[in-house]
Design goal:
The chain is an alpha+beta fold and 438 residues long. Helix content is 30%, strand content 29%. The radius of gyration is 25 Å and the shape is globular. The structure holds zinc ion (ZN).
Length: 438
Amino acid sequence: MSTESKATLEKLVALCKRRGFVYQSAEIYGGLNGVYDFGYLGTLVKQNLRAVWLTAMNSCKGDMLQLEGSLLGSRAVWEASGHIQNFHDPMVDCLQCKHRYRADDIDLNKPCPHCGNKNWTEIREFNMMFKTYVGATAEQGSEAYLRPETAQAIFINFKNVISTNRVKIPFGIAQIGKAFRNEITPKQFLFRMREFEQMEMEWFCKGETAEKDFEYWCEQRHNFYAILGLTMSRIRMRPHAKDELAHYSKACTDVEYQFPFGWKELEGIAYRGDFDLSQHTKFSGKDLAVFDEETKTSYMPHVVECSVGADRLFLTLLFDSYDEDVVEGETRIVLRFNPAVAPIKAAFLPLTKKQSDATEKIYTAIKQTGLVVDFDESGSIGKRYRRQDEIGTPLCFTYDFESETDNAVTVRNRDTTKQERISIDKVESYLQDFFTKK
Ligand SMILES: [Zn+2]
């Protein structure tokens, strides 16, 4: 693969809509800004991404548990975590056209980029959490918030998890789920959304080993992107400078990806000290320290956090796999997905409609093995290949005039476009080999 990306944000947005990966939410009503729905192919890719992430988590050293926390969180949780007080973005409005900006996104010495006037409000702090009320009363006691991150559910359940599972420190708790941030200016499609999905893991360890564990996780997470098949020259690890760190954080490294709009954070790996469990101990009055049988003392576990946005990763994957090349004198768009994350694993194509019944029989047999496959009989064979290339289907099986007599089909490889003839009774094992090898 070339190192220069042929993808642009515009091309990806158009492709996602054209092929049903992603739709603007509430599009028929004019759309809800910063919120998206995933169509059939997008849903499949996200399922595959979650699976690859979980496999990577489960194959780490030590125990890895999982949790599915609630999306609504009581006010008390976000007070303890600091989100009520600190989860702000600076906001500024144009008094002329009422456009709203993040104050750190624009130059206030210059006119409004939208209307060209220079008439700004004061900069105000805007809390990015979505607030609501639980039950029929709107009193402070019933205040709840849609979670702005998944991590707190792990911290507040720490005692529950420890007392109901046979785990010893160090161990991790992984969680995949939605989070919500009322971004002032959502942008770049799936890059910054108001409703998004996080894949987070909190690693609980002793303070003495924490720095080593942090290094371990940086290495693990770097490997993850290689396993996923991303172009590693577009991935870099960026350790934060001391003045970038939160006051409690002891170290933090971002995994960055080189998007067409610059190097941007893809994942954050943070050594958070014992801040999280200490805060919840202080605010809840419940001691979250653990007892060490060896030294007969209790201590507060330290935490290493790995946090990546599933939607941002999805966008990254699209940027990374998008390619255009020329096949038989025709330019094609091809998503060179790692087969493990490709939404459709194989397509079954009758050369003409006369071969449809026979082709569908093979398709149905493979579908019943649980593999996500497609059957397509409409349009010329070249057109159907292009269609499958554009959604990243690794293999196409074509049943033609000779298939009836030689009991074989042609299998075409997405990346090489090379074709080979294989016996119909070998199709299932061919697929098995192909997807376990990769
Ligand atoms: Zn304006």
